[in-house]
Amino acid sequence: MRPFELTAPETVEAALASPGTFLAGGTTLVDLMKLNVLTPQHVLDINELPLRGLDTSDGLRIGALERMSEVAGQPGVYPVIARALLQSASQQLRNMASIGGNLLQRTRCTYFRDVEMPCNRRQPGSGCSAISGANRMHAVLGTSDSCVATHASDLAVALVALDAEIRLVSAEGSRTVKLAEFYRLPGDTPEVENDLRPGELVTEVLVPRLDWASRSTYVKVRDRQSYEFALCSAAVALHIEDSRIVDARVAVGGVATVPWRLHAVEAALRGAPATPEAVEAAASVGADGARPLADNGFKVSLLKRTVVRALLELTEESR
Fold it and tell me: Hey, which of 2, 191, 220, 234 has its CA 20 to 30 A from 150?
């Protein structure tokens, strides 16, 4: 780790007026600094800023500095969000990691984290080592010839499924952005991972009210049961009346370069009976457009099976 200057601004205004890299839980930033992937000269510890709180009175508002473990245990948090949080990392990391930091975490691609290897996200134009390298954990959706790294956040998958937004502030003012639009596909510029502008700070997450999201779940398939990133995950919420699916929200993680909403699956579910046959048929289009690599072709079928598993969990509750 290279030397850096650490300061702790006491107000949001002071933080925005100071150039540097924001530090909350530090569960990603510190790791990358140790590896020299990130080498900020000035780090701003923002943990004392008034960016906490959780309000469930009309939808869900979560302060960006709330810790993951605290949010997961609060009443009124939609099950899909709570389960995504509880299946993230380890208990120790969940106690430290902030909500805002989790949404901004960098990819866990081993080539990105190894400064000796070419990586277009870390060094634009150097190449993507994963395309012809060890790519079992990499993406099959949303990829490009420049990058095939998966997005790491479980929470982001659940929030994208529920049409969540994030509020961003800067010295110029504030704006609210849909999380699904905040993340960027790699295309020819994989180093631009999101729409966060220089000097901006995430202040809160806003989830619109969706009463039927009380019937929701998060299924995560991984190589081991804890402290492991997803091979595939599915965030699902269903509105079921009289054994028929009225509406659906479905997103997947571990298989795409961004949290991936499955609009075609949702459309196939709407109006369908809440039966295993209907669920199987809807999930069959989930991997349309996939581009598997040498080692991760299994993710195409795994995606479909993971979505089916999540949907069956919720439809069985209605029978």
Answer: 2
